[in-house]
TrEMBL record:
Enzyme class: transferase
Protein name, as recorded: Putative adenylate kinase
UniProt signal peptide: none
Gene3D superfamilies noted in UniProt: P-loop containing nucleotide triphosphate hydrolases (3.40.50.300)
Record flagged with keyword Transferase: yes
Pfam family, one: AAA_18
Species in which this protein is naturally found: Methanolapillus africanus
Keywords from the UniProt entry: ATP-binding, Kinase, Nucleotide-binding, Ribosome biogenesis, rRNA processing, Transferase
Amino acid sequence: MCIHSFPPFLTVALTGTPGTGKTQVSKLLEKDGYSVLHLTEFIAECNISVERDVERDCNIVDMDALEEAVLSFQNKIRGGFERKIKEHNFSDEAFLQFTRDPKNLPMLIIESHMAHCLCDLAVVLRSHPTVLKERLDARGYSERKVHENVMSEAIDVVLCDCYDYCRRVYEIDNSSLKLSETADCVKEIVHALYEDEFLKFRSYLSKNGENIPDLTGGGTEPPSGLTVVEEEGVVIYESDYDDAMDETHPVLIKYVPGKNDWSNLVD
Protein backbone atom coordinates (compact mmCIF):
# COMPACT_ATOMS: atom_id res chain seq x y z
CA MET A 1 0.00 0.00 0.00
CA CYS A 2 1.29 3.44 -0.90
CA ILE A 3 0.14 7.01 -0.33
CA HIS A 4 -0.65 9.24 -3.30
CA SER A 5 -2.13 12.66 -3.87
CA PHE A 6 -3.91 13.45 -7.10
CA PRO A 7 -2.33 14.78 -9.13
CA PRO A 8 0.58 12.81 -7.65
CA PHE A 9 3.33 14.38 -5.61
CA LEU A 10 6.33 12.05 -5.73
CA THR A 11 9.26 11.69 -3.37
CA VAL A 12 12.23 10.08 -5.10
CA ALA A 13 15.46 8.89 -3.50
CA LEU A 14 18.72 9.69 -5.27
CA THR A 15 20.88 7.11 -3.57
CA GLY A 16 23.94 4.95 -3.99
CA THR A 17 27.17 3.86 -2.34
CA PRO A 18 29.35 6.74 -1.06
CA GLY A 19 31.48 7.99 -3.96
CA THR A 20 28.97 7.40 -6.75
CA GLY A 21 28.32 11.13 -7.21
CA LYS A 22 24.99 11.68 -5.49
CA THR A 23 25.75 15.06 -3.93
CA GLN A 24 27.39 16.60 -6.98
CA VAL A 25 24.65 15.36 -9.31
CA SER A 26 21.90 16.54 -6.96
CA LYS A 27 23.43 20.02 -6.86
CA LEU A 28 23.30 20.16 -10.65
CA LEU A 29 19.63 19.17 -10.50
CA GLU A 30 18.95 21.80 -7.85
CA LYS A 31 20.69 24.44 -9.98
CA ASP A 32 18.33 23.57 -12.84
CA GLY A 33 15.26 24.13 -10.66
CA TYR A 34 14.40 20.68 -9.25
CA SER A 35 13.32 20.46 -5.61
CA VAL A 36 16.14 18.67 -3.79
CA LEU A 37 16.62 17.81 -0.12
CA HIS A 38 20.23 17.14 0.88
CA LEU A 39 19.77 14.76 3.78
CA THR A 40 23.14 15.25 5.47
CA GLU A 41 22.66 19.03 5.64
CA PHE A 42 19.02 18.59 6.67
CA ILE A 43 20.00 16.34 9.60
CA ALA A 44 22.38 19.01 10.89
CA GLU A 45 19.87 21.84 10.40
CA CYS A 46 17.17 19.93 12.31
CA ASN A 47 19.56 18.91 15.11
CA ILE A 48 18.59 15.27 14.65
CA SER A 49 20.45 12.93 16.98
CA VAL A 50 23.56 11.34 15.46
CA GLU A 51 25.90 8.86 17.12
CA ARG A 52 29.38 8.08 15.85
CA ASP A 53 30.30 4.48 15.08
CA VAL A 54 34.06 4.75 15.55
CA GLU A 55 34.77 1.17 14.50
CA ARG A 56 33.00 1.52 11.15
CA ASP A 57 33.90 5.23 10.75
CA CYS A 58 30.31 6.32 10.09
CA ASN A 59 27.36 8.09 11.72
CA ILE A 60 24.22 6.41 13.08
CA VAL A 61 21.13 8.60 12.71
CA ASP A 62 17.89 8.56 14.71
CA MET A 63 15.72 7.36 11.81
CA ASP A 64 12.40 7.90 13.60
CA ALA A 65 13.20 11.57 14.19
CA LEU A 66 14.53 11.92 10.66
CA GLU A 67 11.42 10.38 9.11
CA GLU A 68 9.18 12.74 11.07
CA ALA A 69 11.21 15.79 10.04
CA VAL A 70 11.32 14.76 6.38
CA LEU A 71 7.57 14.13 6.30
CA SER A 72 6.91 17.60 7.69
CA PHE A 73 9.23 19.15 5.10
CA GLN A 74 7.66 17.08 2.32
CA ASN A 75 4.16 18.20 3.27
CA LYS A 76 5.19 21.85 3.05
CA ILE A 77 6.70 21.37 -0.40
CA ARG A 78 3.71 19.34 -1.56
CA GLY A 79 1.29 21.97 -0.30
CA GLY A 80 3.13 24.60 -2.32
CA PHE A 81 2.78 22.56 -5.50
CA GLU A 82 -0.90 21.95 -4.79
CA ARG A 83 -1.55 25.67 -4.43
CA LYS A 84 0.34 26.35 -7.65
CA ILE A 85 -1.71 23.75 -9.54
CA LYS A 86 -5.00 25.22 -8.29
CA GLU A 87 -4.13 28.48 -10.03
CA HIS A 88 -4.68 26.77 -13.41
CA ASN A 89 -7.39 24.78 -15.15
CA PHE A 90 -5.43 22.00 -16.82
CA SER A 91 -6.28 19.21 -19.20
CA ASP A 92 -4.15 16.10 -18.61
CA GLU A 93 -1.96 16.91 -21.60
CA ALA A 94 -1.50 20.54 -20.54
CA PHE A 95 -0.70 19.50 -16.98
CA LEU A 96 2.02 17.06 -18.06
CA GLN A 97 3.46 19.75 -20.31
CA PHE A 98 3.42 22.12 -17.32
CA THR A 99 5.41 19.62 -15.23
CA ARG A 100 8.20 19.41 -17.80
CA ASP A 101 9.51 22.63 -16.29
CA PRO A 102 11.58 21.44 -13.27
CA LYS A 103 10.14 24.25 -11.13
CA ASN A 104 6.63 22.89 -11.78
CA LEU A 105 7.40 19.20 -11.30
CA PRO A 106 5.48 17.94 -8.22
CA MET A 107 8.40 15.99 -6.86
CA LEU A 108 10.94 16.11 -4.06
CA ILE A 109 14.30 14.45 -4.72
CA ILE A 110 16.03 13.31 -1.53
CA GLU A 111 19.79 12.86 -1.85
CA SER A 112 21.66 10.51 0.47
CA HIS A 113 23.04 6.98 0.65
CA MET A 114 20.09 6.28 2.98
CA ALA A 115 17.41 8.30 1.16
CA HIS A 116 15.72 5.13 -0.07
CA CYS A 117 14.74 4.36 3.53
CA LEU A 118 12.42 7.39 3.34
CA CYS A 119 10.97 7.01 -0.17
CA ASP A 120 9.02 4.50 -2.23
CA LEU A 121 10.76 5.43 -5.50
CA ALA A 122 14.52 5.31 -6.04
CA VAL A 123 17.22 6.16 -8.54
CA VAL A 124 20.48 4.39 -7.64
CA LEU A 125 23.78 5.75 -8.92
CA ARG A 126 26.22 2.92 -9.64
CA SER A 127 29.96 2.93 -10.32
CA HIS A 128 32.30 0.09 -11.24
CA PRO A 129 34.18 -0.94 -8.06
CA THR A 130 37.54 -0.04 -9.61
CA VAL A 131 36.31 3.47 -10.43
CA LEU A 132 34.72 3.79 -7.02
CA LYS A 133 37.95 2.80 -5.27
CA GLU A 134 39.83 5.54 -7.09
CA ARG A 135 37.28 8.14 -6.00
CA LEU A 136 37.26 7.03 -2.37
CA ASP A 137 41.06 6.87 -2.21
CA ALA A 138 41.11 10.46 -3.50
CA ARG A 139 38.81 11.45 -0.62
CA GLY A 140 41.34 10.14 1.86
CA TYR A 141 39.11 7.38 3.24
CA SER A 142 40.79 4.77 5.39
CA GLU A 143 41.75 1.50 3.71
CA ARG A 144 39.07 -0.33 5.68
CA LYS A 145 36.34 2.16 4.73
CA VAL A 146 37.33 2.08 1.06
CA HIS A 147 37.28 -1.72 1.04
CA GLU A 148 33.88 -1.87 2.79
CA ASN A 149 32.25 0.52 0.32
CA VAL A 150 33.83 -1.05 -2.75
CA MET A 151 32.69 -4.52 -1.70
CA SER A 152 29.21 -3.15 -0.95
CA GLU A 153 29.02 -1.78 -4.49
CA ALA A 154 30.26 -5.06 -5.96
CA ILE A 155 27.47 -7.06 -4.30
CA ASP A 156 24.70 -4.47 -4.83
CA VAL A 157 24.08 -3.67 -1.15
CA VAL A 158 22.35 -0.30 -1.70
CA LEU A 159 20.43 -1.58 -4.72
CA CYS A 160 19.14 -4.58 -2.76
CA ASP A 161 18.20 -2.31 0.16
CA CYS A 162 16.12 -0.22 -2.23
CA TYR A 163 13.98 -3.23 -3.05
CA ASP A 164 13.20 -3.60 0.66
CA TYR A 165 11.84 -0.04 0.86
CA CYS A 166 10.82 1.03 -2.64
CA ARG A 167 8.20 -0.16 -5.13
CA ARG A 168 10.02 1.20 -8.19
CA VAL A 169 13.82 1.21 -8.52
CA TYR A 170 16.09 2.38 -11.35
CA GLU A 171 19.86 2.49 -11.71
CA ILE A 172 22.39 4.57 -13.64
CA ASP A 173 25.87 3.20 -14.26
CA ASN A 174 27.94 6.39 -14.29
CA SER A 175 31.36 4.69 -14.38
CA SER A 176 32.20 6.41 -17.66
CA LEU A 177 29.79 9.35 -17.49
CA LYS A 178 30.45 12.99 -16.69
CA LEU A 179 28.47 14.46 -13.78
CA SER A 180 26.35 16.48 -16.23
CA GLU A 181 25.58 13.33 -18.22
CA THR A 182 24.53 11.50 -15.06
CA ALA A 183 22.30 14.44 -14.13
CA ASP A 184 20.71 14.27 -17.59
CA CYS A 185 19.94 10.58 -17.00
CA VAL A 186 18.30 11.41 -13.67
CA LYS A 187 16.19 14.10 -15.36
CA GLU A 188 15.10 11.62 -18.01
CA ILE A 189 14.04 9.14 -15.33
CA VAL A 190 12.16 11.53 -13.04
CA HIS A 191 10.12 13.12 -15.83
CA ALA A 192 9.25 9.76 -17.34
CA LEU A 193 8.43 8.44 -13.88
CA TYR A 194 6.12 11.36 -13.11
CA GLU A 195 4.28 10.96 -16.41
CA ASP A 196 3.91 7.21 -15.85
CA GLU A 197 2.69 7.57 -12.26
CA PHE A 198 0.19 10.24 -13.28
CA LEU A 199 -1.29 8.25 -16.17
CA LYS A 200 -1.36 4.92 -14.31
CA PHE A 201 -3.09 6.36 -11.26
CA ARG A 202 -5.56 8.20 -13.50
CA SER A 203 -6.21 4.90 -15.33
CA TYR A 204 -6.57 3.01 -12.05
CA LEU A 205 -9.27 5.36 -10.83
CA SER A 206 -11.05 5.28 -14.18
CA LYS A 207 -11.06 1.48 -14.46
CA ASN A 208 -12.47 1.15 -10.96
CA GLY A 209 -15.35 3.46 -11.82
CA GLU A 210 -14.15 6.22 -9.54
CA ASN A 211 -14.98 9.90 -9.85
CA ILE A 212 -11.61 11.29 -10.90
CA PRO A 213 -10.68 14.59 -9.21
CA ASP A 214 -10.10 17.53 -11.52
CA LEU A 215 -6.67 19.13 -11.52
CA THR A 216 -7.83 22.29 -9.77
CA GLY A 217 -8.93 20.30 -6.72
CA GLY A 218 -12.34 21.94 -6.67
CA GLY A 219 -15.75 20.42 -6.06
CA THR A 220 -15.10 16.72 -6.63
CA GLU A 221 -16.10 13.97 -4.25
CA PRO A 222 -13.27 11.70 -3.03
CA PRO A 223 -13.11 8.39 -4.90
CA SER A 224 -15.03 5.68 -3.10
CA GLY A 225 -13.18 2.59 -1.95
CA LEU A 226 -10.02 4.54 -1.15
CA THR A 227 -8.89 5.76 2.24
CA VAL A 228 -8.77 9.57 2.15
CA VAL A 229 -6.64 11.80 4.36
CA GLU A 230 -6.19 15.55 4.14
CA GLU A 231 -2.91 17.12 5.22
CA GLU A 232 -2.38 20.87 4.99
CA GLY A 233 -5.05 21.17 2.32
CA VAL A 234 -3.70 18.31 0.21
CA VAL A 235 -5.98 15.33 -0.48
CA ILE A 236 -4.17 12.01 -0.18
CA TYR A 237 -5.48 8.65 -1.36
CA GLU A 238 -4.27 5.31 -0.07
CA SER A 239 -4.66 2.50 -2.58
CA ASP A 240 -3.24 -0.85 -3.56
CA TYR A 241 -2.87 0.01 -7.23
CA ASP A 242 0.92 -0.26 -6.97
CA ASP A 243 0.65 -4.01 -6.45
CA ALA A 244 -0.12 -4.37 -10.15
CA MET A 245 2.53 -1.90 -11.36
CA ASP A 246 4.32 -3.22 -14.45
CA GLU A 247 7.25 -1.49 -16.14
CA THR A 248 6.16 -0.51 -19.63
CA HIS A 249 7.47 3.02 -20.14
CA PRO A 250 10.18 2.91 -22.86
CA VAL A 251 12.41 5.41 -21.05
CA LEU A 252 12.17 3.70 -17.68
CA ILE A 253 12.84 0.26 -19.15
CA LYS A 254 16.34 1.47 -20.06
CA TYR A 255 17.14 2.01 -16.40
CA VAL A 256 15.70 -1.15 -14.89
CA PRO A 257 18.41 -2.75 -12.69
CA GLY A 258 20.10 -5.99 -13.62
CA LYS A 259 22.71 -5.02 -16.18
CA ASN A 260 25.65 -4.80 -13.79
CA ASP A 261 27.23 -7.87 -12.23
CA TRP A 262 30.43 -7.07 -10.37
CA SER A 263 30.19 -9.91 -7.87
CA ASN A 264 33.24 -11.61 -9.43
CA LEU A 265 35.34 -8.78 -7.95
CA VAL A 266 34.51 -9.73 -4.36
CA ASP A 267 37.53 -11.02 -2.48
